[in-house]
Each structure stands twice: as structure tokens, then as C-alpha cells.
């Protein structure tokens, strides 16, 4: 293999073969003449997405002409404190034909979004008996895959739209908390400013899709707007506390509010959640969402609509067949609504705090790593 061939434009690797254990034994035990094969050095990882990356490296000229394959050891890094690369425990060992570098490693069956990986590489030559002679392993490189792109979020959006169902009218948004949240300052409630009587935006947790670009980044306040089918009013049960702040819908969503689709997921249950973001036009949250989230038509979407009537008033509707989690990106004054105790139960099993998405659900998963 010549120098010019190694530095040729990237070639996308659509399919990588997994070594079986018998095949990988020769790589780990070093059968063959390893001294004549160059060891990959200065590994570079680039063009990282949620389910792909490009890899390249430098090599000495000695033995290049003998290289027929690359062995790529890709390991999901479970703990940041552990920095030991254990080849025998690596579930994904990939064999690729020696192609021009950089090459693209792509595959939703083994790459997950927003996940830390360790990677090492060997060069190899396939021998007449089918075994491989291999080089020493390269240095270990660590990298993290990216969040879902807008393309992936659009796929989620289409799946969510197919599940949303008919629209029902509503008039208020509501937010449940413990009594202490509304009455006194506490280190347990950092999204509450008791002195200024405000509810303050807090960073979204890791609930929902693993590749969601808003988890751990977007600041906001969670609200609900779902109603009971038989009463048309908010349900009296909540997993988040027995005290409910309730506010008229037009305070949070009006003609100067933008709506964005954030996520679609379930938690091993039959019902599904849709996360929407409400951001006042030009606000910090609005600027953030414009870059990464699909925007929805305020008056015509399948989840949460705000329509101006002939008399100038606003009417609101929400999707019946999904549970909406609405994130409002700005502080909300407590005196703009009311706080009352609900009469129902506190159903902790329905809490979505840091809830993990069901990776096997065919309704809310897309064709990239979960």
C-alpha cells in the first residue's frame, strides 16, 4: 500500500464484519510475524455524529505493502474512572479491509449517541491458512458520539405525529411540586427563587431519548397541559407533588411564542411522551432551540396548537393520545397563577425524572443507536 493510497479521500465503510472469537484469538495472541507490520500511530477521530465517525492514523512505511485488513477494537466506556482497555471483554471487534484513510465507521447496531467509547487499532495481513498476522495494538483513543441531528429529530417527529391522535381543548398549564417548593427557600429546590417569588429555569435532566440534544443543556420549567377525557380538566393525580401551580395558557403561549419539538419516548409502558419547548421569540431559549430543534407551526401542529379566533381571543388544543411535557424557557412569576392542593394521589411510578427510554419500542425509536 503506497503513501498516496493511504492519504486518498475518505471511503465510507458501509459494513464492518464482527470477528468471531476464534478469529480474534489470533489477533490477541499475536500469531504471525508482527515485526513487519506497522503499528498505527497518532490516531485521529473526526466527523463524529450520533452513529458514525471517521478514523485515520499515521504509519511507518515498513511493511505497509503487506497490510490487507485493519482490526478496530471499539469499547463502550462505562466508567470515566476506569481507563483500562480490556481486549477480552470488548464485545465489538471489527475487521475492515485495508481501504484509503480516513474511513467512516458507521453502524447503528453498535454505536449509540452521546456515549463515550475507547478505540484501538491493529494492522493485519491475512495468511493463506485464513489466520491473521497482526501488528501491536495502537494507543488507546477516547471519544464521545454526538447528539441526534435535526435529521434524526425529524424522524422522531414523524413517528410522534403518527401517534398523537385527535386534539382536545384546554385552557391552563400546570406544574406540580411539594409544598416546600412554593413556600420557602431550600437547597432541594434550586429552580425556585423564594425572595423574588419566581420559578426559575433549571437544566433539563437525562430523561427521554439518549441522543436528545436538549438533555443536560436546555434550561426551562416543565409544565403539563393534558386533560382528562371525561372532564376536560387537568387530572387530579401527579407524580411530582400534591401542590399545583396553575396558569392560564395564553400567558405561556401566544403570538410571540415559538414552539419546538424536543423528543418522543416511552418508558416500557403503553403510553408515550412528547417533549415540546415553548420559547418567547428572541429569548435565550429560542436562540438555542432554533439551531437544533424542528420548529412547529404554532396554529397547526399535531401536539399543541394556539389559534386566534375571530374575536381576537386565543384557543388551545393538545394531543389526546400522548402525554405532553412542555418546557417553558423563561422564569415564571408565582403571582401570575394560583397554587392549590390537588385531591388525587402522588403516583411516583409515573415520574419521568431521568427516565430511560425503552430501546426496543418500535413506535418511538428510529434507526440509529438508542
Verbal overview:
Belongs to the PHYHIP family. It comes from Labrus bergylta. May play a role in the development of the central system. This is Fibronectin type-III domain-containing protein. This protein folds into 2 domains: about 5-145, Immunoglobulins (Immunoglobulin-like); about 150-350, no CATH class. It is built from 6 helices and 25 strands. The protein has helices spanning about 5, 20-30, 150-165, 180-185, 250, 285-290; strands spanning about 10-15, 15-20, 40-45, 50-60, 70-75, 90-95, 105, 115-125, 130-135, 140-145, 165-170, 170-175, 190-195, 200, 200-205, 220-225, 245-250, 255-265, 275-280, 295, 305-310, 315-320, 325-330, 330-335, 340. Strands 2, 5, 6, 8, 9 and 10 form a 6-stranded antiparallel β-sheet that branches. It has a 6-stranded mixed β-sheet with strand order 15-16-23-19-18-20. Strands 1-7-4-3 form a 4-stranded mixed β-sheet, with no helix packed on it. Strand 21 (about 305-310) and strand 22 form a beta hairpin. The radius of gyration is 26 Å and the shape is elongated. Mean pLDDT is about 85; it is low at about 1-30 and about 80-90.
Amino acid at each position: 500500500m503506497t503513501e498516496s493510497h493511504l492519504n486518498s479521500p475518505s471511503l465510507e465503510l458501509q459494513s464492518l464484519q464482527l470477528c468471531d472469537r476464534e478469529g480474534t484469538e489470533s489477533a490477541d495472541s499475536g500469531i504471525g510475524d508482527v515485526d513487519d507490520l506497522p503499528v498505527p500511530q497518532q490516531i485521529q477521530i473526526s466527523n463524529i455524529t450520533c452513529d458514525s465517525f471517521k478514523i485515520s492514523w499515521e504509519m511507518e512505511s515498513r511493511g505497509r505493502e503487506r497490510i490487507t485488513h485493519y482490526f478496530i477494537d471499539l469499547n463502550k466506556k462505562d466508567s470515566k474512572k476506569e481507563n483500562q482497555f480490556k481486549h477480552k471483554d470488548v464485545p465489538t471487534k471489527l475487521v475492515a479491509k485495508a481501504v484509503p484513510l480516513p474511513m467512516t465507521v458507521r453502524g447503528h447496531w453498535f454505536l449509540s449517541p452521546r456515549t463515550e467509547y475507547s478505540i484501538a487499532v491493529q494492522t493485519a495481513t491475512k495468511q493463506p491458512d485464513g489466520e491473521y498476522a497482526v501488528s501491536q495494538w495502537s494507543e488507546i483513543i477516547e471519544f464521545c458520539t454526538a447528539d441526534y441531528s435535526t435529521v434524526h429529530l425529524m424522524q422522531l417527529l414523524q413517528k410522534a405525529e403518527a401517534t398523537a391522535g385527535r386534539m382536545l381543548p384546554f385552557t391552563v398549564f400546570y406544574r406540580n411540586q411539594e409544598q416546600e417548593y412554593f413556600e420557602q427557600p431550600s437547597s432541594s429546590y434550586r429552580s425556585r427563587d423564594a425572595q423574588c417569588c419566581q420559578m426559575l429555569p433549571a437544566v433539563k435532566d437525562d430523561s427521554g431519548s439518549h441522543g436528545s440534544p436538549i438533555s443536560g443543556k436546555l434550561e426551562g420549567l416543565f409544565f403539563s397541559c393534558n386533560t382528562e377525557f371525561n372532564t376536560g380538566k387537568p387530572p387530579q393525580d401527579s407524580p411530582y407533588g400534591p401542590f399545583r401551580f396553575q396558569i392560564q395558557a395564553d400567558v405561556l403561549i401566544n403570538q410571540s411564542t415559538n414552539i419546538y419539538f424536543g423528543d418522543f419516548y416511552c418508558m416500557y409502558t403503553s403510553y408515550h411522551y412528547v417533549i415540546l419547548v415553548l420559547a418567547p421569540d428572541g429569548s435565550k431559549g429560542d436562540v438555542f432551540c432554533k439551531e437544533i430543534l424542528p420548529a412547529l407551526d404554532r396554529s397547526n401542529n399535531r401536539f399543541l396548537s394556539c389559534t386566534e379566533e375571530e374575536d381576537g381571543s386565543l384557543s388551545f388544543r393538545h394531543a389526546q393520545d400522548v402525554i405532553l411535557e412542555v418546557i417553558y424557557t423563561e422564569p415564571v412569576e408565582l403571582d401570575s397563577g394560583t397554587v392549590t392542593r390537588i385531591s388525587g394521589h402522588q403516583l411516583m411510578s409515573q415520574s419521568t425524572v431521568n427516565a430511560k427510554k425503552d430501546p426496543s419500542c418500535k413506535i418511538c425509536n428510529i434507526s440509529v443507536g438508542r
